[in-house]
Write a structure and sequence with these properties.
Blueprint lengths: L1 E2 H4 L5 E10 L2 E4 L1 E2 L13 E4 L5 E9 L6 E5 L11 E6 L1 H20 L4 E5 L4 E7 L7 H13 L4 E7 H6 L17 E7 L5 E4 L14 E8 L4 E8 L2
Parallel strand pairs: 1-4
Antiparallel strand pairs: 2-3, 2-8, 5-6, 5-8, 6-7, 9-10, 10-15, 11-12, 12-13, 14-15
Helix pairs in contact: 2-3
């Protein structure tokens, strides 16, 4: 399957051929839909048939193979005909919020030198959990530093390395609970500011420059256990 979103996160639609269609979902030969993974929700949107009819996609999830995507439709919805051509079109407003949030989380991760124990990207609110011990964070200070990095308008670009290279550079992995997906022989890294600001494995979708994120703020810092601290991010618009 060709993962259009991986090479172009700004692609909102693409033409595709239906490979299979069943109760588990629709499989296409190529797609712009990002599947749930790495803390980022799967895209929603529609599949538009040759006659202009639309089939709502409620969520994209990962399929059986490392690069397979299942487009889940509402229960009872009509399924496209195998072999037919459809237009796969995402909910761009929702996706773009995920892109902005996900990139801001990378910046927050770069600011805090503790292991990441969990995280979740959201369209309105996101969170990162850190193994922080007794360290106390200041919301206003983090907000100021985070918006400072955003305002610098650093480029955000992907890099590819072999899986063996990651084995030799385990310091690139910041997440303690989730390991980068393997099985294709290559690992994608996201580099912020040519890798000087942040460089870590990530398969999610991101904005091209940090300035596109817009202002954010740290809404809440929570204690989630003896060592775990949860930092919540929201847009400040």
């Amino acid at each position: 399957m060709e993962l259009v979103f991986r090479d172009d996160a700004y692609a909102t639609e693409c033409q595709a051929t239906v490979v299979s269609a069943g109760p588990d979902g629709v499989v296409l030969d190529r797609t712009v839909f990002y599947p749930t993974g790495g803390g980022q929700p799967g895209d929603s949107g529609v599949l538009i048939g040759p006659d202009g009819g639309e089939i709502a996609v409620v969520e994209a999830i990962k399929g059986a193979g490392p690069e397979d995507v299942l487009h889940r439709v509402a229960e009872g919805a009509a399924l496209p005909v195998v072999g037919s051509t459809v237009t796969a079109k995402i909910d761009w407003v929702r996706r773009h919020k995920h892109m902005r949030m996900h990139t801001s989380m990378h910046l927050l991760c770069a600011m805090i030198h503790h292991g990441v124990t969990g995280g979740q990207v959201g369209a309105e609110k996101s969170r990162l959990d850190f193994d922080s011990g007794d360290h106390a964070y200041d919301k206003e200070e983090l907000t100021e530093k985070l918006n400072g990095l955003i305002a610098e308008d650093y480029p955000v670009v992907p890099r590819w390395i072999e899986e063996s290279e990651l084995d030799e550079n385990q310091d690139l992995v910041r997440t303690l609970s989730v390991q980068p997906p393997r099985g294709t022989g290559r690992i994608r890294l996201m580099a912020v500011g040519d890798g000087v600001i942040d460089l870590q494995p990530c398969g999610g979708t991101h904005v091209a420059r940090t300035g596109e994120i817009g202002r954010v703020r740290i809404a809440k810092i929570e204690n989630k256990g003896k060592r775990n601290r949860r930092i919540n991010i929201v847009f400040d618009e």
